[in-house]
């Protein structure tokens, strides 16, 4: 007797296409446009497999999923959706879907998934594990570029495939690596990260594979390597382009043979680790320069994920900005908003430091500006500071006035409504005189003649000021 597949989708066209493809593949198919009918069939004990859409007129397929799994833990459910956020994929996974297929999908692929779902032995029920998660997105942004990424991630959720993440610094490579781990099937195992650029080259091999006592000078005890620490979980190799060639050879062997030896060790150790690598460098160019092994590249580049720079998805900026504002608020600062003009300005910035730069900027804005709604000029000012090149000989004055303005603004911001009653002009100028003279003296190493020249002051005037302001040479500073 052929298996019966229950299909729920409110799109008539999809129902027709699925019916044709599945009937041709030898299955009986029943279709409905709503969740209620699907639920009735399931509770009547009908069907051997469910294929359901997420958004249906009466109920969300993802909300129905836990009830189906509770009632009939063995009934496999395939979820399909056009809502290509990572959360949809993750939820489908967590709530017990057998597979998640982002629309549009390939019919052949669907039939293959159906075949697999019906042929695998029924596993132990895990309905109890279905938890209602808080709506917390690990990755923010709904631009087309990010949706492509979510789609790829969703497909990778139930696999152990090696992934290579490329993208400029601060685009979220580590975040994606963590998401792959935390929502994948290894989530109960460890996530271990190693940044090749952050450790001395000669120590990389021993960091990765561990070493035996006495393996090299300074190896006073046996040490665990990251491979050992990551056993059963995921090993994130960040800045892989900076890996020395000898370590590359060793890594390649591990990937080929599934085992390694520690530095100074003899016996092979079996390893069960999923590798995710990342780089902001162009590995193909490193290969041409002889700095990266081509065979290793192909081993690592099984599934490439390219994270776009933030300037290529500026439509994500408002959502990201709000996300960081609420993150800062969770850390104890008052919750702030950003006015439209300010937001538009953020969208126009080029963000060489990508999402990390945006996050840092939002943190500064939230901390430094008293207003509840952050205005355009506050953003403008922070961006000017970012965009201004380090002061050159010629434009020292420009850099200086900006710096002074920034400090004055910080002063005004810090004293809203409580400014001194009068005399601010004289007071500010007086207050500036002392650090100005003291710092100039420091820069000239206490040479008063030179300092007078730099300041454009008469030597005697300078001497008098030093005395009046009680600046005692270099010590006047701190
Ligand atoms: N899509 C995103 N949603 C929310 N936060 C993000 C996103 N992308 C990046 N971030 C945040 O930006 C910061 C930088 O991200 P991450 O460290 O993952 O970047 P990276 O590409 O690994 O950088 P690097 O190459 O410099 O190591 C982190 O604080 C991360 O949480």
TrEMBL record:
SUPFAM superfamilies assigned: CheY-like (SSF52172), Homeodomain-like (SSF46689), P-loop containing nucleoside triphosphate hydrolases (SSF52540)
Domain Response regulatory: residue ranges: 4-118
InterPro entries: AAA+_ATPase, AAA_lid_NorR, CheY-like_superfamily, Homeodomain-like_sf, HTH_Fis, P-loop_NTPase, Sig_transdc_resp-reg_receiver, Sigma_54_int
Residue(s) carrying 4-aspartylphosphate: 53
Domain Sigma-54 factor interaction per the UniProt entry, residue ranges: 139-367
Domain of life: Bacteria
Subcellular compartments: Cytoplasm
Main location: cytoplasm
GO BP: regulation of DNA-templated transcription; regulation of nitrogen utilization
This protein's UniProt keywords: Activator, ATP-binding, Cytoplasm, DNA-binding, Nitrogen fixation, Nucleotide-binding, Phosphoprotein, Repressor, Transcription, Transcription regulation, Two-component regulatory system
GO cellular component, one term: cytoplasm
An MF annotation (GO) of this entry: ATP binding
Role of this protein: Member of the two-component regulatory system NtrB/NtrC, which controls expression of the nitrogen-regulated (ntr) genes in response to nitrogen limitation. Phosphorylated NtrC binds directly to DNA and stimulates the formation of open promoter-sigma54-RNA polymerase complexes.
Protein name, as recorded: DNA-binding transcriptional regulator NtrC
Source organism: Novispirillum itersonii (Aquaspirillum itersonii)
């Amino acid at each position: 007797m052929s298996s019966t597949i229950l299909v729920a989708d409110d799109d008539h066209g999809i129902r027709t296409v699925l019916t044709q493809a599945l009937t041709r593949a030898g299955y009986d198919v029943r279709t409905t446009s709503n969740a209620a009918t699907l639920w009735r069939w399931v509770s009547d004990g009908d069907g051997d497999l469910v294929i359901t859409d997420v958004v249906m007129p009466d109920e969300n397929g993802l909300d129905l999923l836990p009830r189906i799994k509770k009632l009939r833990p063995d009934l496999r459910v395939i979820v399909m959706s056009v809502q290509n956020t990572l959360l949809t994929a993750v939820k489908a996974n967590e709530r017990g879907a057998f597979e998640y297929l982002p629309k549009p999908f390939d019919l052949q692929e669907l039939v293959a998934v159906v075949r697999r779902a019906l042929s695998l032995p029924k596993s132990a029920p895990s309905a109890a594990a279905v938890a209602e998660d808080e709506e917390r997105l690990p990755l923010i942004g709904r631009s087309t570029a990010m949706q492509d990424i979510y789609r790829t991630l969703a497909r990778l959720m139930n696999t152990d495939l090696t992934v290579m993440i490329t993208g400029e610094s601060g685009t979220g490579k580590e975040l994606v690596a963590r998401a792959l781990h935390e929502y994948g099937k290894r989530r109960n195992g460890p996530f271990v990260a190693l940044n090749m650029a952050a450790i001395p080259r000669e120590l990389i091999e021993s960091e990765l594979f561990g070493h035996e006592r006495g393996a090299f000078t300074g190896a006073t005890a046996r040490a665990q390597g990251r491979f050992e620490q990551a056993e059963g979980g995921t090993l994130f190799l960040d800045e892989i382009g900076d890996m020395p060639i000898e370590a590359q050879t060793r890594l390649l062997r591990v990937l080929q043979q599934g085992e390694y030896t520690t530095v100074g060790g003899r016996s092979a150790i079996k390893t069960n680790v999923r590798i995710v690598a990342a780089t902001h460098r162009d590995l193909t160019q490193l290969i041409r320069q002889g700095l990266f092994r081509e065979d290793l590249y192909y081993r690592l580049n099984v599934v490439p994920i390219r994270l776009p720079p933030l300037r290529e998805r500026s439509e994500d900026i408002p959502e990201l900005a709000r996300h960081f504002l609420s993150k800062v608020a969770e850390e104890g600062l008052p919750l702030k908003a950003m006015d439209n003009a300010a937001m538009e300005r953020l969208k126009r910035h080029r963000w060489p430091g990508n999402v990390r730069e945006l996050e840092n900027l939002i943190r500064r804005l939230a901390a430094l500006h008293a207003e509840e709604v952050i205005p355009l000029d506050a953003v403008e000012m922070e961006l000017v500071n970012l965009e201004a090149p380090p002061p050159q000989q010629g434009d020292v004055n420009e850099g200086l006035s900006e710096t002074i303005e920034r400090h004055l603004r910080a002063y005004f911001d810090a004293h809203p409504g409580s400014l001194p009653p009068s005399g601010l002009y004289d007071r500010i100028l007086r207050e500036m005189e002392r650090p100005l003279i003291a710092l100039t003296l420091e820069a000239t190493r206490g040479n008063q003649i030179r300092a007078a020249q730099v300041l454009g002051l008469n030597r005697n005037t300078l001497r008098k000021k030093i005395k009046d302001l009680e600046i005692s040479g270099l010590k006047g500073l701190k």
